[in-house]
From TrEMBL:
Belongs to the GntP permease family. It is a multi-pass membrane protein. Coiled coil: none annotated. This is Gluconate transporter. It comes from Spirosoma pollinicola.
Amino acid sequence: MPLILTLIGILTLVVLVAFVRLDTFISFVIVSLGIGLASGMDVVAVGKSIQTGIGGTLGELVLIIGFGAMLGRLVAESGAARRITDVLIGWFGIKNIRWGLALAGFVIGIPLFYNAGFIIVVPLIFTIAASSRLPLMSVAVPMLSALSVAHGYLPPHPSPSAVAGQLNANIGQTLIYGIIVAIPAIIIAGPLFGKTLLHIKATPNRDLFNNREVPTQNLPGAGISFFVALLPVLLLTTFGPLKNAMHEPSFLKTIVTLLAEPYIGMLVSVLTAMYALGIRQGLTVKAITKDMEEAVKAVAPILLVIAGAGALKQVFGDSGTSKYIGSLLADAAIPPLLLGWGIAAFIRVCVGSATVAGLTTVGIILPLIQSQAIKPELMVLAIGSGSLMFSHINDGGFWLFKEYFNLTIGQTIRTWSLMETIVSIVGLAGVLLLNLVV
């Protein structure tokens, strides 16, 4: 019966989100309530479970995602993202421009959430394609594939951060493994796949380009632009291992332990960006704060989706559903990482949202992590890879790509949807290979 209730709950969630078009957070709460009551929990217990799930899921995550949104906004609005792109294109030259764009997309994609990153880089893509006289899609796909990979694989992006939190995975280690897995995914889905799209004709909709223009002479320097964009990566991957290597209590260890906390690392990155990309560029603290407020407003709906998924996960646990499913999955012949990827991929194709797919999968797969010796960091990446599978007409990213480049639905499927599928499958292969050596 718990398995049937779970399937009914997921199908109901798919119907409410994809077909009824009901708000995703409300859909999660309705499904959580329905599964709890149908499992025999009383109304008070279900309500308590939903509240606990929301609070426990958001917790530190509000800080990580909130600070991440602020950092991305400052990198974008200051012109640092444009400076990074210009520098990398200068390094690689026209002949290898696709590789430069892929690297630029990855560097920009670490601090920037996908939608914001997309809107920032599309005008750059159009300008570069026009000046290099290369087919637009062959230039766009390398950069956008890198943005997509960062969004699906790497903290501090919402889904991987939330999944890592639910699985008690180490954020810094997840980031290191994620970068390793991301490299082949970006290479294959970006420059190599992009080279096959020379025949696709596209003319971007210039009316949609409305982000703030920063004069070239006012752009921040290349060094500070790269430093600020990559600072979260440097902090998360440096201080975590350093903390574990220091055994004797000391003032220095206290500082290192503090900086090893992901939310502190993000706070330090935001404060650095405020000064380096804001105050030093002549902006007032009031103007900088206004930009950061807008960033928080933009990320609020994502936090609600994460909260709703946390409620569903808690109801799964408190009703005994997770324990029952865990006992079934423990005996399954399918490797756990492949199973996590497959569940996420299935939900992604049905619902369209990578965030919903990733977070819904956690509630189902969590008991398996607890019963088997699987590195949670690799499960985060397996689920993240699955959550990017075959974006199509029920995904906002599909329409964003289609409308900005003025493509037909068929062309969008042959470019965007296929690119996302490659990212997902290569990501899974990378995770399985990494599992053999770590």
